[in-house]
Amino acid sequence: MSMTSTELRKPVVAVQRAVRILRFLGAAQRPAGVNEVARALGIVPSTCLHILKTLDHDGLVSEDKAAKKYQLGPTLLRFARDMVGSNDFVRNVQTALDRIAQAHQVTTVAVWREGTDRIIVVAKAHAPTNFSIHVNIGSRFPALTSAIGHCFAATGDMDPAYLRQPFEELNWQNTPDFTTWLDDVAYARENGYAIDAGHHIGGVTVVAAPVREAIAGTNRAIAGLGLSEQLKGGALASLAADLKQSADTLSELYSEDIV
């Protein structure tokens, strides 16, 4: 199965452009003018202006009229709040994250693949300790990042020629060689969970398990993050087993509910 998503037969170009503009403004993390946005995205400036004005009218972007620049608008915050409150997966996964964080003294997260090459954190729980690894809801990472990336690669196209480029683009603190990384992907495919012991972030072990869907494969995953000195031996095996069991339970709930 390829990591790429199915192409739309008749995409609505205006909608695609609006989404690209929102993503650009979010990544920029600062206001940007029409010409900058249009140039970066290859959109005709007049078309870009019309889309921005429409998004501004509905509160999805906000215009600084004096500077003639745009940034993300407050309506997106309401959408994010509504999504957390109304989405079945986010509501149900929170219970699992809270329990696992408490039982294993780790930070837990749930991620959803955004498009073909990014994942976004949609839920989290922190360990009830004085020290824990902090992750923000809404944080975005490359889809093949750390143990979560192993899970996505394991359910996608295993052709090394396909995987090498996105692997090379990842940022590691302790970069594994490509062959070792492929072995980790194969391990995730065989065992239903993945482990990254300090490669993505030095001194931090990440354990992840995929939440599978009947038709679309894997677009969601859950993970636990803790200090590598803490997560070894029986503690590591116990966390991996708990994450896999919880992910399997969620997979059964949502295998026919592709949101």
Index terms:
9 strands, 259 residues, 2 domains, Arc Repressor Mutant, subunit A, single chain, three-stranded antiparallel β-sheet, Beta-Lactamase, globular, six-stranded antiparallel β-sheet, alpha+beta
**Total of helices:** 9
CATH architecture of the largest domain: 2-Layer Sandwich
N- and C-termini, Cα separation: 20 Å
Main-sheet strand order equals: 6-5-4-9-8-7
- Output the CATH homologous superfamily of the largest domain: GAF domain
* Radius of gyration, whole Å: 20 Å
Shape: globular
Question: Mind explaining what this structure looks like?
Answer:
The chain has about 260 residues and is of the alpha+beta class. The protein folds into 2 domains: about 60 residues, Winged helix-like DNA-binding domain superfamily/Winged helix DNA-binding domain (Arc Repressor Mutant, subunit A), CATH 1.10.10; about 170 residues, Beta-Lactamase (2-Layer Sandwich), CATH 3.30.450. The chain contains 9 helices and 9 strands. It has a 6-stranded antiparallel beta sheet with strand order 6-5-4-9-8-7. Helix 1 packs across helix 3, helix 5 packs antiparallel against helix 9 and helix 6 packs across helix 8. It starts with 12 loop residues before the first helix and ends in a 5-residue tail after the last helix. The N terminus is likely disordered.
